[in-house]
Specification:
Blueprint: H1 6-17, E1 24-28, E2 34-42, E3 48-53, E4 62-65, E5 71-73, H2 97-112, H3 117-120, H4 124-141
Antiparallel strand pairs: 1-2, 1-5, 2-3, 3-4
Helix pairs in contact: 2-4
Length: 142
């Protein structure tokens, strides 16, 4: 995959700046389908990240270079649920009181701002991570 324009170059650098444990990305799986992935580890060199595909067994986890064409900003190339259709496996996702309280606080922050993300000083990247990532996956997994 070659970079075609300055927007793609900018997205690549923005994505690379946000590659940390817990962040969501779109990732190309082993059969070349785009799936929702979550970064579960970052190599000490910070040049590679380990991706867990949402709804899939950990045997499908992969390591990619942070500059790989197999990574894209979250929800750029995916929509909806991209895990197994017959039986979703969210083995790395555990429901806990702490997680529910985090989601509750996040939703309260959003509603108290009247969905004015500018007043929260949230970037589009953060909005996507929080709403289409953390909140959606939490609700979907319950």
């Amino acid at each position: 995959m070659s970079i075609k324009n300055s927007k793609e170059i900018e997205e690549m650098f923005v994505l690379r700046d946000h590659l940390k444990i817990g962040e969501y990305v779109d990732a190309l799986d082993t059969v070349r389908d785009w799936k929702v992935g979550q970064i579960i580890d970052v190599h000490k060199s910070k040049k590679h990240v380990q991706i867990h595909f949402d709804g899939w067994n950990s045997k499908w986890d992969v390591w990619y270079k942070v500059t790989s064409y197999k990574l894209a900003p979250f929800r750029k190339l995916t929509s909806g649920y991209t895990g197994m259709k017959s039986k979703a496996l969210r083995t790395n996702w555990k429901l806990s009181r702490k997680k529910l309280n985090e989601i509750k606080k996040l939703m309260e922050t959003i509603t108290e701002s009247n969905f004015n993300f500018e007043s929260l000083q949230w970037t589009p990247y953060r909005i996507t991570q929080e709403i289409r990532g953390r909140i959606f996956i939490c609700i979907d997994a319950i």
